[in-house]
Design a protein that fits this description.
Layout lengths: L1 H20 L8 E2 L6 E2 L4 E3 L3 E3 L10 E2 L5 E2 L7 E4 L4 E3 L5 E8 L5 E6 L2 E3 L7 E7 L5 E7 L8 E9 L2 E11 L1 E5 L5 E4 L4 E4 L2 E4 L3 E6 L2 E3 L6 E3 L5 E6 L2 E6 L8 E4 L10 E7 L5 E11 L3 E2 L14 E9 L5 E6 L11 E4 L3 E6 L8 E8 L4 E8 L3 E7 L4 E4 L4 E3 L2 E5 L3 E8 L4 E4 H5 L3 E3 L5 E3 L8 E8 L6 E10 L8 E7 L4 E8 L5 E6 L2 E2 L7 E8 L2 E8 L9 E8 L2 E12 L6 E8 L4 E6 L8 E8 L9 E6 L5 E6 L7 E9 L11 E4 L10 E7 L6 E6 L12 E8 L13 E4 L7 E5 L7 E10 L2 E2 L6 E4 L10 E9 L2 E7 L10 E10 L5 E5 L3 E4 L7 E10 L2 E2 L6 E4 L11 E5 L5 E6 L10 E8 ...
Parallel strand pairs: 1-5, 2-6, 8-15, 8-23, 17-27, 36-44, 45-52, 84-92
Antiparallel strand pairs: 3-4, 7-9, 9-13, 10-11, 10-14, 12-13, 14-15, 16-19, 18-25, 20-21, 20-26, 22-25, 23-24, 26-27, 28-29, 29-32, 30-33, 31-32, 33-34, 35-38, 37-42, 39-40, 39-43, 41-42, 43-44, 46-50, 47-48, 47-51, 49-50, 51-52, 53-54, 54-57, 55-56, 55-58, 58-59, 60-61, 61-64, 62-63, 62-65, 65-66, ...
Helix pairs in contact: 3-5
Length: 1458
Amino acid sequence: MLKMNGKISSFLFIIQIIGIATSNFGKREILNETKRSISVRSISSFNKNYYSESNVTLENVKYDSRNVFSRYKRNVPMMLSQYFRETTVTAGVDVNLQCVVNGPHPARFIWERDGIVISSNTDSRYAIGQTMTPDGGVVTQLNISHIRVDDGGRYACVAHHGESVISHEDRINVYGPPYIRTLPPIKVQSGQTVTLKCPYYGYPIREITWEYRGKEITSEQNRYKRSDKTELSIEIYGRKPKLRKRDVSNTDGVLVINKISKAENGASYACIVRSPSGEMAKRSFDLQVVEAPQLEDILLAPDLQEGQIVQIHCNLKSGDSPVYYSWLKDGKKIPSHLKIVERSLEVFSVLIIKNVSLDHCGTYTCVAANHVAKVNRTVNLYIKVAPKWSEEPQNTSLLLGRNGHVSCKANGYPQPQTHWLKKDVVSDTWRPVLEVAGGGVLSLSNGSLIFDSVSLSDAGLYTCHVENGVGEALSKTVWISVNKPITFDVSSRNITAKLGQQVTVECVAKGDDPIRVMWTRNGKPINPLTQRVKISEMKTEDGMTSVLELLQTEVSDGALYQCKAGNPFGADVYTVYLTILEPPLPPNDLSVDSVKSRSVKLSWLDSARSLAQYYTLQITSTQRLSWNTARSVNVTRSDDIRHTIEIEQLQAATGYSARVAGGNQADLSPYSAPVRFTTAEEAPSSPPIGVQLEQTSSPGELLARWLPPPTDTHNGLILGYRIRAVPQLIGMKESPESGDKIIKTTSVYSKQETIITGLLKGVRYAISVAAFNSAGNGPFSIPLFEDTREGAPEEGPTSVECGGVTSTALRVSWQPIPHHKQAGSLVGYTVLYAAQGRQWLNASTPVTEVRLQGLNKYTNYTVKVAGFSNYGVGPYSFPIVCSTLQDVPEAPAEIKLLSQSSTTLLVSWKRPKQPNGKLLHYTVYCKSSASNDGPESQRVDAQESTYEETQALELKGLQEGKQYDVWVTASTVIGEGPESRRVTDAPQQRVVAGVASLGGEVVVPVRGSLVLSCRSVGVPPPRTVWYHNHYIITHHPRYTRNKDDSLLIKNIDQSLGGNYTCLAKNLYGSDSVVYSIKVLPLPDAPSLRATPFKDSTLIEWDELKTSNDTLTYGISYNLTWREGDGPWQEAWPMARENRLPGVQQHTLAGLKCGTKYSVRVTATDNVGTSAPAHVDVTTLGGAPVSPPTTDWLWSNSSHIYIQLSGWDDGGCDVTKWDVDYRPLGSNMWHRADNRAIVDMNLHWGYDYSLRSAPANYAVGSLAPATWYQLRVTATNDAGFATTLYTYATKGLDGEEIGPPSDFLDLNMLVIICSSVLLVMCLLAFICILFKRHRQTYSSQYHHSIADEAKSRNESVASHSEHKERYAHTPRIYTSPVHPRKPSKNEMFEISPYAEFALGFRTFDHVENQDLPSRLPGRPRFDTETSFQTRSESDDSDSTSKATVSAMSRRHCRTPHHR
């Protein structure tokens, strides 16, 4: 009720504002449409269920041509940069209203309709949004879906920031009958101008009038004013707005009443709205006139004294009841401790103060208010009192360096003012203390003088002066002195000295003289004459220093020494703790007896001469080897020779170092040599930390982040985390472990995060996280609660029923969605309906039934329903088909009348464009044009729709030359439709050629067939000719001319489209019919895009745009896919899916990781199916990656353990592990079974059908101290990885064995021997070739020299000629042919058939002078033999080759060492 009163009061207040603003109606300024109009409003209200507008002020009131205004407070730089205009729409369309405000601060918007605030809760069709613009402005939008007539009215967008308001308003007109909203009685203030706005809706409106006491109010009456306007109106029909100029006298329903009086209380004004069609709406509004309260001035007696009785009267001069009074003191509520009594009646209120004092002084305000106004009167109450001492200042002594305080307080009214003065020693004058003392002195408002840190300069004479202008001032002079007590910079100190050292102890005392110092030991004074000590003293600037010296310290010198110093202003003590040390001998033989996961047992030996009274054992982690931060354990010495201790509270799976030292009162001995050990592994002991939850943008998902457990609680290598998500649903029980999600980690110490999917939408979940290693699961973290984001409903409505109501309306009903499937707050239901091949239309409703109107007559509609919330639309129900009812058909589309003989007319017509039902028959009417008698009718049964849509009827028995009128109607079961146009003709003896067939546009799909008719009449019979685009059709394989002159077109393609004309001609004339053939093509193939994921792929394609208007929304798609070269599978049933425009995607789920898939999509419409679009896509992930080393293997005497977490799964979960083993040197492999315990609760995923993944693989039944070869194969959906490792079991005593001897391996020996033999054979072959080549070359060289010498001896006479000839033409030499392969190293090989000259002479040659000492050889490199030899050698090293081939492709991970 209060909320309704608030809305009504807000509306009344706006009416009053407008009434005041329009009081100067005759002087308003007409602005251009581009200018903005402003007005200012200031609202004051209080919480007594009524409002007052007496403080309303208006400035700069301006109106634009549309009689709308904006309002904002003066000097506030908010500005409306964009706003909506008056709009006229039809019912059912969507309307968007927008305002933009720019200013230094973001504004808050509200929307009003006819003065009443509206929101999204007012109607589900209203959607209000507010966003920021890049330039800092604020945009608000009001969207009204499927607007109705009752949504019309005056809309306003109001922006608020603090007390500042700016607004804009204008009308939204909706076509419909007029109606006026109801309003409660309107309360107004007497004497004010009131503006009444008629809250009407409906359009168009011819006029709006007002009546008072049954009589119409006209503009000629001086007291009343009505505003008219001539404007541009935007009329929106459907979605195509058009602007037109209209000049109508249309009042906006505003009535201004000037200076309303009290006598008009209860008056009733009626608003009457009329439409051009005569419809009328009328509504009366009652006025309640209320007089504002008026108060008399408040008077008080002068010269009030403390202790008197004071009464403050507030009297009402005039005003309507009820009047409410309230009092304020200094603008606030009067405090209760002042004991002020208030008495109020209907006409006055009084405050009574029985004993007035200083606390009662102040400003008192009387506030009186009624339903229309609030007024106040103010008076000041005060009494004068001379100052009196409340705390008189005294002489004070302050200590140096400490805080000081001197009080000086006095009471009086007005409040006394306190001033401190200090006497300047230099000038012997009094000056303000702040000028003399500086920043270390502070004078408070209460008179106190504060010294922050007392210094020597603060000493002197001070005067406190107090006055308030009443009576005599107070003044007091005091002396402040500063003294320096004894202090020590350090109060105590510990000194440690070894036996026999010299010790010196200093005592530095600061303070004023005289200073006395005394030394004590264990509380007794020290006498330097009798003790083995030396004491000396020395005077300093700020005190004294005393030194105590001990020579040749003994054990007895260890004691408590104190230096006591004092002066008349204070004393202090300086304490020294002296310790004389004598360390013992260190222990020996420190050993580790046993090791557990959390404890270790250590023991050591110590001799009796060690003097140790206790032992200090230090233990620290080897990862952070620092003895400074090591853990220390003190052990009391026992009588046993060997001391044993068990250290607990260790970290699991951690390496430690330990050492021990003996100690006594003197000191610790040196530490022993450290021993090292590693604790066993156990499950993590702490949950992950810093767990955070937040919603994701997708419903049913949560994003979880956390940090790993503290490092000291890992207790081994963290393999992954278990996430537990438990829904908080009442009555729903679920095993906590059943929904656990396991994730593996590759980084042990970094921040982890994952998205938890598959959750229920809009449900609160308890999320906890636990870490696990190979030893087990750790504890779960404290559950955190988070709600999943609400989303669209998860199911569609059921039991959808549809039936025709009228020829243009359908009724659709369904069962609601179950509550647990609504995924949040269900807003309503949306109904999609469409005729075949047409665009989908949408209707929304909050209930489970809707009536669809404005549909096509006798048309099948496909209907499906879905629920929707604020987060989207859920799945649609299974589509159903229903039909609207039949109606009377339209008139036949065309009609033609021809003369067939002297007594016969032939009438032909085409079926109606909109049959609106199943056509039963046609009625043909015929009458003489000159006769007034009724027509004769004949009934013709309607033919089934075929290519021949023309029907004809012969009208026989007519008179020659007489004119006849003929028309046709069509009929359905509902009745007879309208008649066609009338055609007139007369039977003639001479019949001109005519074509009775009616042409027009014919749409045919590609590859189809079509028959075009050409029925002709005429006497003599006419000849008919067919044309295609003005070309005569002759013989063509696709054209067939029938006996009835019709034309059959077969296998139509785009080239056969166009105009077809049939021309009939005889002796008396001609006639023709034209068919326009439009060939519809097949749809194009879609353009595919594929986005792969780990186990799914998102297929997207663009919506096809076709030129076939009738098929734009009738396209369906078919998607098929296959894995690799497997069989094709359909993504949805053969009944292809009709998809919405703009939604072209499908997700293929349940795919294999890292696998190649082929996808193809075809588009199908009424014409046919397109060519398939094809795309290949591979899901994310790859084959496993094996670790390159054996760091992930460990063993005991009978087993070898493989930590499977060392394998990188490549992004795809490993589905199979195979391990084969054989002793090193053996040729037979053995398949190993996993002897490790598998945790069946670990599932690598989130659903319940996932495979279990073991953490370890144990190969058992092995011989101790033996080397083995392991062949590990990891398989996933993307492939497999096989790696060979060489590893050894330990001995029975747990000791590791040495590396394997490669020379004792039989296989290795065979390979080595074969390689050596092959190399020796190769070297021998090379030597033989080299030797043979050298002998051949030397023989040829000797023969050539001998022949040349013989030739020279036989031809001495021709020596010159031979000499010159051989000088220019050298001899030719050849070498034996050696067949071999070409090589790049033999680029200078000489052909045996080449001819060339040697560059030396043979005369004057000394025997064997130029023979080379080493014949050149021709080196050969048999690449084939060398390569084979090297390959065999490489294959022999099977162990190293397998290890090198398994190098990691990604990153290294730290293994867990056993």
